[in-house]
Write a structure and sequence with these properties.
- The protein is mostly beta strands and 489 residues long.
- The protein has three helices and 30 strands.
- The strands form six sheets. Strands 3, 4, 5, 6, 7, 8, 9, 10, 11 and 12 form a ten-stranded antiparallel beta sheet that branches. Strands 19-20-28-24-23-22-26 form a seven-stranded antiparallel beta sheet, with no helix packed on it.
- Strand 14 and strand 15 form a beta hairpin.
- The protein is globular, with a radius of gyration of 26 Å.
């Protein structure tokens, strides 16, 4: 959603002061935040080496790649898809988060392999305190020299007589400054391979870093109150107590109810509406930014997670249910809601386009394509992403603030990656979706295009895209009132 950023710089291994100084009159200092991520990096003494997916924030950034090889023949390292994202917010409080992920890693022609390697770092401040963690960093399917290998923070594994590797290599630096202000700086390299002797064409001293993430945050503090000048002593007067009429409690649905409050942290009601799927199809990246600071307005906190993906990546119905509130607002841009069969509600925002299935009252199946990733609304100028929220049925009485952290749900849902959109630019040229995203207005696509596909059947998406290339069907309809051909039952 909306971002207020204080420009700061953080270099690898160096904690930079991030706090502003109070000016004349004791203005409040400003918290600072920065984040950095690198999907993969090969460091070779005396040589240029190589890297991919290197980004930093502020401003918000995201990067995607279909593969990586070093050198060109892949004799040292090859990968599948790469993603990286970095975000930061500054103000009275600060948050920073970064993530990087590498799929299908192979080093030295299979001597070291992993199905997925992910680095994740978070930092935040509250009052004078600062903290951070690397709980999202993981490695799946790690095999070293032919043996399955367990993963632990700063776990060290010998590589015969030529080196060693470290799993979830991490370090932190905390500090306290004037007024008790705390700062946090931390990094994690999900997989770090160190060569102590020449091997596989690399000299001793070489290093391969996979999925690096770094964050820095600095707390702010209100200045000490200005001294009060002495004045004439006044005779104490008897205190008169006046009764103030009690403010009426807010009403909702005609009934009196307590004020809206943020749900307790860590609350994760079970969702039982049926099978669920990840809402973005194809390569994507997300970090836990739920509850993050969003501006100086009380209660303006981040109600969901931002899932970064390429412009035009398909957005899937995460569950069987009913689509409602399809349209535009200034914050969410093109947005919609989905209610599953148990009453749980899910919010999708910043879409670049809708499909004909995104129609109020329309029943959809999990995996059907509802729209496409964009950056409309107050996300203009940020990397394209889906803002996604989870509102469990049991907390709907809290209104919009009944949202809970979507991260555990997103991590658990099946994230299909069978189809890679390698030629996204060419595909977007056909659909008419541009970057930056279209002006505020729904864009509908004919039913005969990929909105007919299901994310649960990758083959259907491929067939629909192939059919679309063969004919003229699937042209953009820029009129909201035009009825699509052959509507589905």
């Amino acid at each position: 959603m909306g971002k207020r950023l204080t420009i700061v710089v953080a270099l690898l291994g160096l904690l930079v002061p991030l706090v502003g100084t109070g000016g004349a009159g004791g203005a409040r200092s400003t918290a600072g935040a920065s984040a950095r991520a690198v999907a993969i990096r090969v460091l070779v003494p005396g040589q240029a080496g190589a890297q991919a997916g290197a980004i930093s924030s502020p401003p918000y950034h995201a990067a995607f790649g279909s593969s990586f090889a070093y050198p060109a023949d892949g004799s040292v390292v090859t990968t599948g898809s790469l993603t990286a994202s970095a975000s930061s917010d500054s103000g009275g409080s600060a948050t920073a988060a970064s993530t990087s992920e590498v799929q299908a890693l192979s080093v030295f022609k299979g001597e070291i392999v992993a199905s997925s390697v992910k680095g994740a770092a978070r930092g935040s401040t509250r009052g004078r305190a600062a903290r951070g963690d690397f709980s999202g960093a993981t490695i799946s399917g790690l095999t070293v020299l032919g043996s399955a290998t367990s993963v632990a923070p700063n776990g060290r594994v010998a590589l015969s007589d030529w080196g060693y590797l470290v799993t979830l290599e991490q370090g932190t630096d905390t500090s306290s400054g004037a007024g008790g202000m705390q700062g946090f700086h931390g990094f994690v390299t999900a997989l770090a391979i160190h060569l102590t002797a020449p091997h596989g064409g690399l000299p001793a001293g070489s290093e391969i870093q996979v999925s690096y993430a770094e964050t820095s945050v600095q707390a702010s503090v209100a200045p000490a109150p200005a001294p009060i000048a002495p004045g004439p002593v006044k005779k104490a007067q008897p205190k008169v107590v006046k009764k103030t009429p009690k403010a009426p409690e807010p009403k909702r649905n005609g009934r009196t109810s307590p004020p809206l409050l943020q749900p307790p942290p860590g609350l994760q009601p079970e969702l039982t509406g049926g099978g669920y799927v990840f809402p973005v199809y194809g390569p994507s990246s997300f970090i836990d930014t739920f509850g993050g600071f969003r501006g100086d307005v009380p209660g303006n906190w981040h109600h969901g997670d931002d899932i970064f993906a390429a412009l035009g990546a398909p957005l899937l119905a995460c569950a069987d249910g009913i689509v409602f509130s399809v349209g535009w607002n200034d914050l969410g841009g093109n947005r919609l809601w989905l209610r599953d069969d148990q009453g749980n509600e899910f919010y999708y925002a910043h879409l670049s386009a809708f499909t004909p299935l995104a129609k109020n009252g329309r029943r959809v199946k999990a995996g059907e394509v509802l729209g496409f990733v964009g950056n409309t609304g107050d996300a203009q100028g940020t990397p394209t992403h889906l803002h996604f929220e989870v509102h469990p049925f049991s907390l709907l009485f809290m209104g919009y603030d009944g949202a809970v952290n979507p991260t555990p749900y997103l991590q658990a849902w099946k994230h299909l990656q069978d189809v890679r959109f390698y030629n996204v630019a060419g595909w977007l040229a056909q659909t008419g979706i541009s970057d930056p995203a279209p002006k505020p207005a729904a864009i509908l696509l004919q039913v005969s295009d990929i909105s007919e596909a299901s994310g649960l059947d990758p083959g259907s998406l491929q067939r629909a895209m192939a059919a679309r290339d063969r004919g003229t069907e699937g042209q953009l309809i820029r009129s909201l009132g035009l009825r699509p051909k052959a509507p589905r039952p």
